[in-house]
Design goal:
The structure holds 2 protein chains of 2 kinds.
Chain A lengths: L13 E4 L5 H7 L6 E4 L9 H12 L2 E4 L13 H14 L4 E4 L2 E4 L2 E7 L5 H18 L3 E4 L14 H12 L2 E5 H11 L3 H7 L5 E7 L2 E2 L4 E2 L8 H14 L4 E4 L7 H19 L2
Parallel strand pairs in A: 1-2, 1-12, 2-3, 3-4, 4-7, 7-8, 8-9, 9-12
Antiparallel strand pairs in A: 5-6, 10-11
Helix pairs in contact in A: 4-5, 7-8, 8-9
Chain B lengths: L2 H12 L19 H8 L8 H23 L1 H7 L1 H14 L14 H7 L8 H19 L11 H4 L6 E2 L4 E5 L3 H9 L31 E8 L2 E6 L2 H11 L4 H6 L8 H18 L2 E2 L3
Antiparallel strand pairs in B: 1-5, 2-3, 3-4
Helix pairs in contact in B: 1-2, 2-3, 3-5, 4-5, 4-7
Chain lengths: ~280, ~290
């Protein structure tokens, strides 16, 4: 599954998120990096420095778009203005696939700017899958969906999270961005076995993997992206790539961002697991 | 329960304002029990009640949007102080929740809202409104489109009495206080940031230091962009008048005629206009007409 129809038949290695504190280092030093992930919304604008930096990055590097506000799981229709701007950016970056989250976050055109968890129901799966299909048809690029960290479960749920993810991606015929840190965080918050989750998803649909750090509190774990990846998450990553094969992997580090080298070195640890578990 | 009802119920709950201790309130603003609402839709677990699980989202909603608005308006914070800014921000975001997929637009309605709710900037009304206008103009100038520049070669096509189109990123402000200098000082202390996924945010408690406020002084400012940086360029009142007239679509002659020259000799006025146009052209403020 390293290269599949869900990631545009690419074989990307280990990337990191493109973040403002690293702009000058990247542009001046031009470090070797397999690829960068950008947050689409930061570049869905009409001009100025963000796009100028992006264009310079695109001259040197492969870029994949990751979104935070498509809200496939919201009941309301997709935002056409959002889609138009996203499509313009897709044309600019030539991203081989595009990801966003399996969540909801807006009602009647008002936005929470959060990744709110889905109730795992067949109704929700059907509606979400329909919106993913609509987005893919409009954007003309493979769309993959990421499992989110969650802190709440709904009485209405009719299945497990991994069954819901499977139900959605099969109905939508789309790929998965498997975030193993999110699986770990949710497993601790909801007391399930994270390996059962990783073992159960359709591995042939995994287009990309996310790894990240998080923060522990007394009664729950928060997905803060502000620490190195902990060993249990690396172990989960190892299991995931045993099942999927070496897959495009991205380290998210979004707060208290250390130097470029520190972030990149942390991401490159993924290669050890690929060597150990897959032998690639 | 249907998906639509779950989402409406939870969305309404997470947008309820927090308590002074930054927890979830017991009741919604219209008196419903948030404990009952939480119990209705969310399962408890062995560590957290339904209410406590919903509260995590309620807190994150406010932490995220308050941090974003606070980051966009450090000048306003410096003028009215942190406590008043926070009260203002909560009231504003309750009245004007985000209607955009990007938090960049959170402050788009702040000036209009403040004009309708001046009690939030009492004692500082004029300077605070000036600052909000300047800070919003800065946001717009940062990432608005840049059209192809007008060049000398384009001039003959425009005819003898041309209409000059201003770049979309140029903003023109008539201000009653020199808030540009104040904002530059405040900005020097800040850090740049953007959306970095939707990872959970900590409560940001950066402090904009209260400053000695400038005395009233009418200034005219063009907020513009050069080499992808935003600049505040003070301009003469007459230059401001011409630029505003051009933005309204007036011909050059009508734009210049709109100026009250205050008794200046016509030769002086003509020299000024030539200098201004030379500067504006060099800065690329004019674009090819659409």
């Amino acid at each position: 599954m390293p290269a599949n129809r869900f990631n545009g038949f690419t074989q990307y290695g280990v990337g990191i998120g493109l973040r403002i504190p690293h702009y000058s280092h990247i542009l001046e030093e031009k470090p070797v990096v397999d690829w960068f992930e950008i947050i689409s919304e930061n570049f869905m604008i009409d001009g100025g420095r963000p796009l100028a930096v992006l264009d310079q990055i695109l001259e040197q590097y492969r870029v994949v778009q990751h979104g935070v506000s498509m809200y496939f799981g919201s009941v309301e229709p997709l935002n056409r203005e959002h889609l138009k701007r996203l499509k313009a950016l897709v044309r600019r970056t030539r991203t081989p696939w595009l990801s966003d989250h399996l969540c909801w976050g807006s009602v009647d055109g008002s936005y929470s700017h959060d990744l709110l968890p889905m109730p795992y129901t067949f109704e929700a799966a059907a509606k979400t899958a329909q919106k993913i299909r609509e987005a893919r048809d409009f954007l003309e690029v493979p769309v993959v969906v990421e499992n989110v960290s969650s802190y709440a479960e709904f009485h209405a749920s009719e299945m497990t999270e991994w069954q819901f993810l499977t139900e959605v991606v099969e109905r939508a015929d789309c790929g998965i961005l498997l975030d193993v840190n999110n699986i770990y965080v949710s497993s601790r918050n909801h007391s399930f076995d994270p390996f059962e989750y990783v073992n159960s998803v359709p591995h042939d649909r995994v287009a990309q993997i996310h790894i990240a750090g998080h923060s522990k509190f007394e009664k729950y774990i928060l997905d803060t992206h502000d620490h190195p990846v902990i060993d249990p998450v690396w172990n989960l990553y190892g299991r995931a790539i045993e099942l999927t094969g070496p897959t495009a992997t991205l380290l998210e580090w979004d707060d208290h961002i250390p130097s470029f080298e520190e972030v990149h070195d942390e991401a490159l640890k993924a290669n050890r697991y690929v060597a150990e578990r897959v032998g690639a | 329960m249907e998906l639509d009802r779950i989402q409406r119920t939870m969305f309404d709950a997470v947008r309820q304002p927090l308590t002074a201790g930054e927890g979830m309130r017991k009741r919604t603003r219209d008196g419903k029990s948030l404990r009952v609402i939480a119990n209705e839709i969310i399962k408890p677990n062995d560590r957290l009640t339904s209410f406590e699980r919903l509260e995590i989202y309620n807190r994150q909603y406010w932490f995220r949007i308050l941090a974003a608005l606070s980051e966009d308006f450090p000048g306003l914070r410096a003028i009215i102080g942190e406590r008043r800014f926070e009260k203002l921000a909560i009231a504003y975001l309750l009245d004007c929740p985000s209607r955009s997929f990007t938090m960049r637009n959170l402050g788009s309605r702040l000036e209009a809202w403040l004009r309708a709710h001046p009690e939030h900037i009492a004692q500082f009304e004029s300077i605070a409104l000036d600052m909000v206008r300047l800070e919003w103009a800065e946001i717009e100038a940062f990432d608005e489109a840049a059209k192809p520049r007008l060049t000398e070669a384009d001039l003959p096509v425009l005819g003898p009495d041309p209409k000059f189109e201003l770049q979309p990123y140029v903003r023109l402000l008539d201000l009653s206080h020199p808030v540009d200098d104040l904002l530059i000082r405040v900005r020097r202390e800040g850090e740049e940031a953007d959306i970095v996924s939707n990872a959970v945010t900590e409560r940001i408690r950066s402090r904009a230091r209260r400053r000695r406020l400038p005395k009233p002084e009418r200034i005219f400012v063009a907020v513009h962009r050069a080499d992808n940086s935003v600049y505040f360029k003070r301009i003469d009142k007459e230059a401001f008048t011409i630029l505003c007239a051009l933005r309204e679509g007036k011909n050059l002659s009508d734009a210049v005629d709109a100026v009250e020259w205050s008794g200046r000799p016509i030769e002086d006025a003509s020299a000024h206009v030539q200098q201004w146009f030379a500067y504006w052209s060099a800065q690329g403020w004019f674009c090819k007409t659409s």
